[in-house]
From TrEMBL:
Source species taxonomy: Bacteria, Pseudomonadati, Pseudomonadota, Alphaproteobacteria, Sneathiellales
Start and end residues of each XdhC- CoxI domain: 12-71
Coiled-coil stretches noted in the UniProt entry, renumbered to this chain: none
Domain (XdhC Rossmann) ranges: 189-331
InterPro entries registered for this protein in UniProt: MoCofactor_Util/Proc, Xanthine_DH_XdhC, XdhC_CoxI, XdhC_Rossmann_dom
Protein name as annotated: XdhC and CoxI family protein
Length: 349
């Protein structure tokens, strides 16, 4: 299921919702392409940058939502971030407004499949009149699509191009198209342990570019109010979950048991295709784990990729909320460094 369309459908249950998305940003803009918010007659979820820009965009979205004209109405507005908006950013932002009735979003959610992590794309022309297309396979590419769009989509689906929000020119006399991932930029984060620190981490991660898979050995170990965007996974042997995680996933290990922590760390390190492995604990715990992992046959260079203690340096507090903030800051730094490396490699090709 697509979380994006689930959120839109929930917002549109009262009649309509307008999704506002940044499709182009130039100069010093507050948010980049793909950032979005969902606006209803009385509510708002998300942000396109705040300030006067967002104030104007909300008003425009409600105007479009109340009008309800035509099938799949869309509109594009360009906002210079200058004196008219009372902002001194100096850039400009182009926004796409899309009106959804409740049934529209539900139908798209059904069409999006069972999981939004498998690389699907949302594709649509800017001129409206047709529903967004949920694209998962090159066979779905339309024969009458602009060549530039077909190429962009093929490259994203094949992995030759990063799957990210993109405004694609339609060519002379034809509308431009907007493409975005069904699950934009979400790094899988496997969080092992539903104790105090695990709960504190979940509490501070709303809105961040991670998809949390929260793992523990028994259902009763989880709180009653697990957020909707967090996947709760009960596993008698969490190390089997770790061994089957997708390549590049982040792992944070903080269970109630040191032997269980060791088994999970061993599974992650033995496979070796992770983006981050963090183990909660002291320097003494790390020394013991390094020795045991080495005895289990893990190479020293691989063990060195394990982070313990977790969190950025300079924060000494041991309260769960303090540990959580330090940890989240650390994985955001690592994710940003990984993105920079990917961009550098792409530019060198």
């Amino acid at each position: 299921m697509s979380r994006l369309f689930q959120e839109i459908a929930k917002a549109a249950a009262g009649g309509w919702a307008v999704r506002v998305t940044v499709i182009r940003a130039e100069g010093s803009a507050p948010r980049g392409p793909g950032a979005g918010m969902t606006v209803t007659a009385t509510g708002l979820d998300g942000t396109v940058g705040g300030g006067a820009l967002e104030f104007d965009a909300i008003a425009e979205a409600r105007k479009i939502g109340a009008a309800g004209e035509g099938a799949w109405p869309r509109a594009v507005r360009t906002y210079p971030l200058g004196p008219r908006l009372g902002q001194c950013c100096g850039g400009s932002v182009r926004l796409l407004f899309e009106r959804y009735a409740g049934t529209d979003a539900l139908a798209l959610d059904d069409a999006s499949g069972q999981d939004d992590l498998d690389g699907g794309l949302i594709v649509r022309p800017l001129d409206g009149g047709t529903p967004p297309i949920i694209l998962r396979d090159r066979k779905q590419i339309g024969r009458d699509w602009p060549l530039s769009l077909s190429r962009a989509v093929k490259d994203m689906l094949s992995g030759a191009r990063r799957r990210e929000a993109a405004l694609v020119p339609g060519g002379k006399g034809r509308p431009d198209w907007f493409v975005e991932p069904l699950a934009p930029g979400a790094i899988p984060l496997y969080l092992y342990g539903a104790g105090h620190v695990g709960r504190a981490i979940v509490a501070v991660m709303r809105g961040l570019p991670f998809r949390i898979i929260w793992v523990d050995t028994a259902a009763e170990r989880f709180p009653d109010d697990v957020p909707e965007d967090v996947t709760r996974l009960v596993a008698a042997q969490p190390e089997t979950v770790a061994a089957g995680a997708p390549a590049g996933a982040f792992h944070a290990v903080m269970t109630y048991s040191h032997p269980l922590d060791l088994s999970i760390c061993h599974a992650v390190l033995a496979r070796g295709v992770f983006g981050y492995l963090g183990l909660i604990g002291s320097a003494t715990k790390k020394t013991r784990f390094v020795r045991r992992l080495s005895e289990l046959g893990i190479a020293d260079a691989t063990i060195a990729r394990m982070t313990c203690p977790i969190g950025i340096a300079g924060i000494a507090g041991k309260e769960p909320a303090v540990i959580a903030v330090g940890f989240v800051a650390q994985i955001l730094q690592i994710a940003a460094a990984r993105d920079s490396t990917c961009t550098a490699r792409k530019n060198s090709l």
